[in-house]
Amino acid sequence: MTELFQLVRDTWAVVRALGKGAYGHVYHVINVKNGVQAALKAESKSQADRVLKMEKNVLQGFKGVKGAIQLISMGTTDSFSYIVMTLCGADLTKICTTLGKITDGTLLRLAIRTLLCLKQLHEIGFVHRDVKPCNFAISAASARTIYVFDFGMTRRYAAKNEKNEWFIKRKRTRVSFRGTLRYCSLAVHQRLEQGRVDDLWSWAFMAVELRDPLPWAHLSHPETVQAVKEETPIEKLCTTGLE
């Protein structure tokens, strides 16, 4: 995507690359007309799996929601599609690595604010399906604000009918694995449809790991991880000093 290092639509100039993954690249950009700084996520039109549309749908749902990441602009060029959104600061993985062992007070504040992020996402009809520390970040403008982001695996679980009333979509009986092995719920291991509760299980595992290692953190085989999750009582997860 070399053309990204030129002006995008004569408006957005790339400052630096922020990251890249299987589904696209993210850049720190600045609006050359008004100086606004933002994040631009670009996706090649030639790649097989296209997830930017889902990201756009979630961000459009967040329009006007206080404390949620906002869609600023979107568009296409000859070779890629892009969205421009609120610029985030460091993610929770980087923050906790920098701070080392965090205090109980900091843990509680992070847990509450990340839970609020998921509440906002669920209220607009989506489940995240990949809740983990690196998908939450502080605002570039204020460390008191935390955003949830990276909606490539997000799925709509509820929608509104012609009367503007919410209804829950029918669950699929068998689904593919979606998420991250360390944080996913037991339902994900069992290939069941994910709902809001599965985001909350992932959030709980994430909150524990912000302070102490999860009992299955050193494991990589899906069946073994599932077995340890099934055998670990919630009381043990909520006890500090896990090894």
Structural class comes to: alpha+beta
Number of H/I helices: 7
Shape: globular
Biggest β-sheet: count, sense, barrel? Answer: 5 strands, antiparallel
Q: State which percent range the strand residues make up.
A: 15-25%
Low-confidence stretches: none
Main-sheet strand order equals 1-2-3-5-4
Helix content: 25-40%
Chain-averaged pLDDT: 90
Provide the domain count. Answer: 2
CATH class of the largest domain: Mainly Alpha
CATH level-3 fold name of the largest domain = Transferase(Phosphotransferase), domain 1
CATH superfamily of the largest domain: Transferase(Phosphotransferase) domain 1
What is the succession of H and E elements?
A: EEEHEEEHHEEEEEEHHHH
Straight-line N-to-C gap: 44 Å
How many individual β-strands?
12
Evaluate the radius of gyration: 19 Å
CATH-scheme architecture of the largest domain: Orthogonal Bundle
Protein architecture, described:
- This protein is an alpha+beta fold and 243 residues long.
- The chain has 2 domains: 14-86, Phosphorylase Kinase, domain 1; 88-238, Orthogonal Bundle (Transferase(Phosphotransferase), domain 1).
- It has 7 helices and 12 strands.
- It has helices at residues 52-61, 92-99, 104-123, 186-189, 196-209, 222-231, 234-237, and strands at residues 12-21, 24-31, 37-44, 71-76, 80-85, 88-91, 126-127, 136-139, 146-148, 155-156, 158-160, 166-168.
- It has a 5-stranded antiparallel β-sheet with strand order 1-2-3-5-4, with helices on one face.
- Strand 11 and strand 12 (166-168) form a beta hairpin.
- The longest helix is centred in the middle third of the chain and has 20 residues, at 104-123.
- Residues 12-243 form the Protein kinase domain.
